[in-house]
Each structure stands twice: as structure tokens, then as C-alpha cells.
Amino acid sequence: MPKGKIKFTPADKAWAIKVKQRDGFACVVCGDNHRPNAHHILPRELHDTKLDISNGITLCAKHHLFSREISAHNNPLAFFCWMEKNRPEILQYLKEKCYENNT
């Protein structure tokens, strides 16, 4: 497998479909429904939350990777601030999961 490529299991694919389904197959930031991406809020390497639907959010390519304003990867602080304002219940849940795993 080429370096940087992620191998998706059937469970990963099912998780992505459930996340997109929950969010109406559209970016939660702007509403764009062209090829939505399911993004892990906490890294997928954290096995306890990897397949947790609450650890996912649907984003368009712009808000997932490219925007300088709000992007999960290109401007994570702005994305975190957006989450704090618009999805505080998800952030609170994920913080609690982090604390559980670190104690």
C-alpha cells in the first residue's frame, strides 16, 4: 500500500455512512452536499472512539481540508471554535471520553 494511503475496513465504511446519514449527507458548516467527507474529530488512531458515531462529522472538501477560515485539517483551531459554538454537546462528550481513557 502506498505511503499515506489509508486502508478502510468494512467497519470504517459503515461508520462513514452512518455519520453522513446522521448529518443529512451534507457539510455541517455550509450545507454543501457534493461528495461529503466523514471526518474523525478525535484521531482515528484512538481505538476507543474510532467507530463512535459521535466522533464523526460530515464536511465538504473545503471545510475538511482546504479552507483557511474553517477547516478540520488546514485550520484546526478555527474548526475547534466552530465546534464549540455549533456542536458543544459533541465536544463535551468527546472530552469525557478522553478523560475516561486517560485516568
Word description of this protein:
Helix content is 43%, strand content 8%. The chain is mostly helical. The chain has one domain. The chain has a two-stranded antiparallel ribbon. 22% of the residues are buried.
Task: Itemize the secondary structure elements and their pairings.
Elements: H1 10-22, E1 37-40, E2 56-59, H2 61-66, H3 76-86, H4 88-101
Antiparallel strand pairs: 1-2
Features:
single chain, 103 residues, mainly alpha, two-stranded antiparallel sheet, 4 helices, 2 strands
Shape: globular
Domains (count):
1
Helix share, percent: 40-55%
Query: How many helical elements?
Result: 4
Can you summarize the main beta sheet? 2 strands, antiparallel
Return the string of H and E elements: HEEHHH
Query: In what range is the share of β-strand residues?
Result: 5-15%
Distance between the termini: 36 Å
Tell me the radius of gyration.
Answer: 14 Å
Summarize the structure.
With about 100 residues, this protein is mainly alpha-helical. The chain contains four helices and two strands; from the N terminus they run αββααα.
